[in-house]
Amino acid sequence: MSARLYLDHAAATPLHPEARDAMWEAFDCWANPNSPYAEARRCNALMEKARSTIAATLGWEHDILFTSGASEAIVMAARRARIESRAHSATEHDVVPHGMGEQSIRIPVDASGIVDMAALDEVLEEGPALVAIQQVNNETGVIQPVAEIYEKVRARGSLLLCDAAQGAGKIDLPEADFITVSGHKLGGPAGVGALLAKDLTQIEPVGGQEKGYRRGTQNVPAICGFAAAVEAERFRKAMPRLKELRQAFENTVEEMGGTIVGKDAPRIPTIGGIAMPGATSASMLVQLDLAGISVSSGSACSSGAMKGSRVVAAMGLGEDIANHFLRVSFGPETDEGDIERMVGELQKFA
Question: Domain Aminotransferase class V spans what residues (predicted)?
């Protein structure tokens, strides 16, 4: 029997060896890193070294606040930014509209998943706002023109919150006022992430740890594993090879009559969003799982609902695509044999 094939790295990727080693060493550090005595100071030193490592590797020269993950980081900025209005793109991760609240303005996207710039301009004309835009979409891999968006946002006295969970550690970080990063999307452990902030005074403090912006004792072993995964840069080093693999995969999908979602937009090599005409998303997931292949039909935070892709629907592509959508996402170790095996199973749905 063949070993299982994991192609859902956009949901979570296996712990990198470097992260595992760093965590194992840090497990000896059990004290509260915020206390004043020697055991605590040792833990604090490990934590601050990890913070510096992440900053240096990602090229971030401002504050980094450790959180329990990207979702918490998004909510921190979304709810506590010192600016009145909120707006988000129609294809953001579910946590964004929930975190921003019912009054947040939804900015539409085009058929490729790119933010409608005219609609963004209209939002910004209404007054200063916190605007949330993903760097990389978690279902399609589409890369937003964050530099252009940030130029518009900054010119209107607004703030940009960029969800970089799918881009950090793989491609360069964008420029934004707030950036969120997830540990388990880049080879670190689950349960740790970070909010990168250009100016902490733009967020309401709550007291406690992390310079007074987050309450709760930090998870030092997880933070050390997070930093080690960032520093290893396994995804970044694999990008050229993964780009070729994804292209070969998508070429075959199209030959079988499938559709590549977001094909005409810039996309990250680690994610391929496809639609196969011969079966629904739900039936394909079951059959692929029985064949030993793990993929998803969208965000792992909502795919259990087995509904058509919300992201695809926001792109205006219709139920014939949304209800037949699969997200296939690659990791640093994905190889040609993995692609051939996946394609062989997909032929059953053509």
Answer: 6-341
Kindly compute the dihedral angle of the four CA atoms of residues 269, 273, 274, 280, in this order, to the nearest 10 degrees: 150
Residues 38 and 325: their CA atoms lie apart, in Å, by 54
User: In whole angstroms, how far apart are CA 270 and each of 65, 113, 193, 347?
Assistant: 27, 17, 20, 21
**In terms of Cα–Cα distance, which of 158, 220, 226 is closest to 193?**
226
The tens digit of pLDDT for each residue in 162-182 reads 999 999 999 999 999 999 999
Domains of the chain with CATH codes:
5-13+234-349 (3.90.1150.10), 17-232 (3.40.640.10)
Q: Can you tell me the distance from the alpha carbon of 342 to that of 336, in angstroms, rounded to the nearest whole number?
A: 10
Contact 163, 97 (CB under 8 A): no
Could you tell me the two tokens for 73?
């980081």
Widest pairwise Cα distance in the chain = 65
Spatial contact of 97 and 88, defined as CB atoms under 8 Å apart: yes
Residue 337 in tokens: 């044999």
In 3D space, the residue among 267, 270, 262 whose CA is nearest the CA of residue 245 turns out to be 270
A 10 A CB-CB count for 283 gives: 12
Tens digit of each residue's pLDDT (9 = 90 or more) over 128-157: 999 999 999 999 999 999 999 999 999 999
DSSP code of residue 269: T
